[in-house]
């Protein structure tokens, strides 16, 4: 009888644990618009397919299992400690809200690791793709290789949050919930707003943009542009939301944020329409021959920077998550060498360092490890 009670207790505890876990994961997934609403809103947009009920990349995203380099690309790898991670913590400058000026600078940037950054422009503070934890729906999935230099609770006052797409390494539910009750303008690609609302952001604080659509915030003009990529947070919501890069133009400075993207003609088009740029934040990592047009290879980073006509290259999307089965410092080493060969100025602060583009000198900190 005692054994029966113990087994019953364990069974109930297991069910409760599974239920709690299920609720947690479901909340991390977020909401999507119903199919009828998507078709009603987006069926006339050239980059939405009513037949497939999904947004369409400028280039079809391809995957070749036989060409994957660096090991097994299966999902199970995200539960393990990455063999490509640095052996010790990477250099960083820890920040608190007191380290930020009360009035944001006219032009400055703080890289917080991967694709999370704060840009100060014209006295406005813009937070992009805020992720401070892991890159998956559970804490043990896709852990950070390096701790964030800033806790979300230590964020300074933010004027605008920009989201490039809804992948976990760019859109973190806990951070959105933390920011939801602040007086912040959220800017996101089409159909991402429902996810934000589900995590508490008021609908009136959300602006959704299609490609080549713009919104203003004070003196800033923010324009969403195409990328070669895809979206989704689960197996059944792939491409139900849009993804984007952004042009952020102030009174005197013009900034480009690449988002996640493979190489394509969109870079030249963006350069022609909105360039030249004073600064281009370009993703440099997560490339692999198995998925050749999902992210930029190092040589494509240089070509993209030239295409958009930017004075300075600011590498992002590296050293934080092992997404592509190569050493954490491989991309930055290659990009730095190629930038020097092509006379491209490189801005490479350690995580948390405040930089003023065109003035601040940075070092090759990855060579110090």
Q: How would you explain this protein's 3D organization?
A:
The structure is a single chain. 22% of the residues lie in helices and 17% in strands. With 369 residues, it is an alpha/beta fold. It is globular. The model has no long low-confidence stretch (mean pLDDT 92).
Give the secondary structure arrangement, pairings included.
Blueprint: H1 2-29, H2 35-42, E1 48-49, E2 54-55, E3 107-111, E4 117-121, E5 124-128, E6 160-162, H3 173-179, E7 185-189, H4 193-198, E8 206-209, E9 214-217, E10 220-225, E11 245-249, E12 254-257, H5 266-274, E13 279-283, H6 298-308, E14 312-316, H7 330-341, E15 345-346, E16 354-355
Helix pairs in contact: 5-6, 6-7
In short:
With 369 residues, this protein is of the alpha/beta class.
Question: What distinguishing features does this structure have?
Answer:
369 residues; alpha/beta; seven-stranded mixed sheet; globular
Estimate percent helicity: 10-25%
**Beta strand %:** 15-25%
- Rg over CA atoms: 21 Å
- Structural class by SSE content: alpha/beta
């Amino acid at each position: 009888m005692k054994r029966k009670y113990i087994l019953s207790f364990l069974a109930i505890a297991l069910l409760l644990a599974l239920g709690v876990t299920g609720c947690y994961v479901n909340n991390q997934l977020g909401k999507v618009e119903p199919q009828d609403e998507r078709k009603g809103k987006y069926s006339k947009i050239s980059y939405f397919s009513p037949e497939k009920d999904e947004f369409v990349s400028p280039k079809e995203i391809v995957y070749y299992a036989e060409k994957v380099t660096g090991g097994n690309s299966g999902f199970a790898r995200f539960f393990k400690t990455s063999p490509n991670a640095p052996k010790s913590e990477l250099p960083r400058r820890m920040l608190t809200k007191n380290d930020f000026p009360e009035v944001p600078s006219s032009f400055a940037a703080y890289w917080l690791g991967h694709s999370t950054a704060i840009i100060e422009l014209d006295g406005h503070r813009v937070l992009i793709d805020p992720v401070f934890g892991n890159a998956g729906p559970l804490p043990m999935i896709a852990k950070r290789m390096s701790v964030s230099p800033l806790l979300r609770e230590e964020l300074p006052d933010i004027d605008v949050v920009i989201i490039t797409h809804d992948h976990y390494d760019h859109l973190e539910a806990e951070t959105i919930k933390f920011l939801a009750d602040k007086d912040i303008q959220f800017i996101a690609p089409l159909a991402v707003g429902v996810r934000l609302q589900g995590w508490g952001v008021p609908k009136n604080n959300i602006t959704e943009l299609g490609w080549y659509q713009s919104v203003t915030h004070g003196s800033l003009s923010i324009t969403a542009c195409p990328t070669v990529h895809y979206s989704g947070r689960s197996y059944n919501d792939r491409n139900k939301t849009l993804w984007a890069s952004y042009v952020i133009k102030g009174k005197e400075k013009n900034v480009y944020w690449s988002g996640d993207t493979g190489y394509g003609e969109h870079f030249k088009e963006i350069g022609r329409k909105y360039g030249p740029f004073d600064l281009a934040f370009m993703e440099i990592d997560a490339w692999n021959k198995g998925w050749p047009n999902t992210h930029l290879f190092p040589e494509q980073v240089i070509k993209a920077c030239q295409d958009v006509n930017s004075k300075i290259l600011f590498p992002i999307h590296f050293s934080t998550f092992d997404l592509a089965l190569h050493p954490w410092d491989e991309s930055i080493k290659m990009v730095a060498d190629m930038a020097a060969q092509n006379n491209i100025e490189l801005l490479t602060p350690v995580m948390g360092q405040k930089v003023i583009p065109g003035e601040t000198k940075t070092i090759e900190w990855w060579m110090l490890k």
